[in-house]
Design brief:
The chain contains 5 helices and 13 strands. By secondary structure, it is of the alpha+beta class. The protein has 3 domains: about 5-135, Beta Barrel (OB fold (Dihydrolipoamide Acetyltransferase, E2P)); about 150-200, no CATH class; about 210-260, no CATH class. It has helices at about 35-45, 150-155, 210-215, 220-230, 235-260; strands at about 5-15, 25-30, 55, 60-70, 70-75, 75-80, 85, 105-115, 125-135, 155-160, 165-170, 185, 200.
Length: about 260
């Protein structure tokens, strides 16, 4: 038996429908019209659906977030759901342009059952985003229709040299990305219809390309361990002691070899 489809209408806000957001889903934030708000409240009462209503802190308007994970792993099996379909007003022609905030849209979701974790097999219901129809488009504007993190990313991309290196761009990481407090950061760069693998960055308190402090030939140098104590505070005393012992042995071997 096919799952029931539920239709909501309202004005689109932040949305990412052709790739995954930071939560691993294709999603859209929808400011609901009154009938859609009443419908979702009814589903919450009668079906206990997971989707909850939110209130915009600036305008007080009511919204809901609808999402769809393109793929999920159940046990040892990966199930592909794909991305939601996006249509023009006729509901048939694929829509490929970005959707600006304030656009009138119709959102169709699939109401499906699921097993509530740690409930002894109790069933619940949830909404999975199926499609979005753009009824009245507001042109997308990156400065106005992006959140602060997206705006910062857009401004951080700059062409290296339009004359000498046309089409080559560089990314300027924000200060917060390399601030103290974390040992690593993940850089995500997204463009429509483009997949770019996340870049994992390990944040360290030293220059890994410093040949004087980190090179193999500096193992016998007494400054190496002074440097390690300052740059790598997580090194244990045991590890440092082992390093010092290895340093002494190596220094002895080098001295013997030099004398011979």
């Amino acid at each position: 038996m096919a799952n029931k489809e539920v239709v909501f209408q309202g004005k689109a806000s932040w949305n990412v429908l052709t790739q995954m957001d930071r939560f691993g889903k294709a999603s859209i934030k929808l400011f609901l019209d009154e009938p859609s708000k009443a419908l979702l409240q009814k589903l919450q009462m009668e079906e206990d659906v997971l989707t909850r209503l939110g209130k915009d802190k600036d305008t007080g308007e009511i919204f809901a977030n609808f999402g769809r994970a393109p793929k999920k792993v159940y046990g040892q099996k990966e199930i592909i759901f794909g991305y939601p379909m996006v249509y023009e007003r006729d509901g048939k022609t694929p829509f490929t342009a970005p959707i600006g905030h304030g656009s009138d849209v119709t959102v169709t979701c699939e109401l499906y059952p699921y097993t509530i974790p740690a409930s002894g097999g109790k069933k619940g219901k949830a909404l999975r985003l199926s499609s979005v129809r753009v009824d009245n488009l507001v042109p997308y504007n990156a400065e106005e229709h992006s959140n602060k993190y997206e705006i910062r990313s857009v401004k951080a991309l700059a062409e290296v040299d339009p004359e000498l290196l046309p089409g080559v761009y560089q990314f300027g990481a924000p200060d917060e990305m390399v601030a103290e407090g974390s040992a690593r950061a993940v850089l995500l760069i997204r463009f429509p219809d483009t997949v770019i693998k996340p870049v994992e960055i390990h944040l360290v308190a030293y220059d890994p390309q410093d040949a004087e402090r980190m090179g193999v030939w500096s193992l016998a140098g007494h400054k190496r361990h002074e440097f390690l104590r300052q740059a790598l505070p997580r090194f244990t005393e045991k590890e440092l002691a082992l390093g010092e012992q290895a340093e002494k042995e190596l220094a002895s071997k080098l001295k013997t070899k030099k004398e011979s």
